[in-house]
Amino acid sequence: MHSPLIFIPRLLQHKEITKMGFKVAHVFDIADTDGKEIPEIAHRLEGDDVDKKLMNALIQASPVPVIFEAVYGRANGFYSLYEQKIVVDNEKLDLRHQYHTLAHEIGHADIR
């Protein structure tokens, strides 16, 4: 979380300037809480029982090219406005989740 810094007047070459910025402010650490576990709001879809015709139809319906390759970090895929493409992770995701991710990313691409 970011919290605003207070305006700081400074003297620079006989001119007073004011700067504003943000700093990191930690609200709490989940380890400092007690009570019931927080439920998981999303889970990975598992399985490879996706209809290939349905997957191909979704790829054809995409307004931008679709690429299946490794996506580093926690993302399952992404839409690149700059490169005009959708990338879906095909290394850590089962086909069922790839289908879900592709539909999600097409939604981003269609909004543009």
If you had to describe this structure to a student in words, what would you say it looks like?
By secondary structure, the protein is of the alpha+beta class. It folds into two domains: 2-32, no CATH class; 52-111, Metalloproteases ("zincins"), catalytic domain (Zincin-like). The chain is 24% helix and 24% strand. It has two helices and seven strands, in the order E-E-E-E-H-E-E-E-H. It has helices spanning 52-61, 95-111, and strands at residues 2-4, 8-12, 15-19, 22-24, 66-68, 77-80, 85-88. The strands form three sheets. The chain has a three-stranded mixed beta sheet with strand order 5-7-6, covered by helices on one side. The longest helix has 17 residues, at 95-111. The two termini are 28 Å apart.
Count of beta strands: 7
Assign a percent range to the helix content: 10-25%
The helix/strand order is EEEEHEEEH
Q: Assign the CATH superfamily of the largest domain.
A: Metalloproteases ("zincins"), catalytic domain
Estimate nothing, just give the exact number of structural domains: 2
In what order do the strands lie side by side in the largest sheet? 5-7-6
Give the DSSP E fraction (strand runs of 2 or more residues). 15-25%
Total DSSP helices: 2
Mean pLDDT: 82
Q: What global shape is seen?
A: flat
Radius of gyration: 22 Å
What is the makeup of the main sheet?
3 strands, mixed
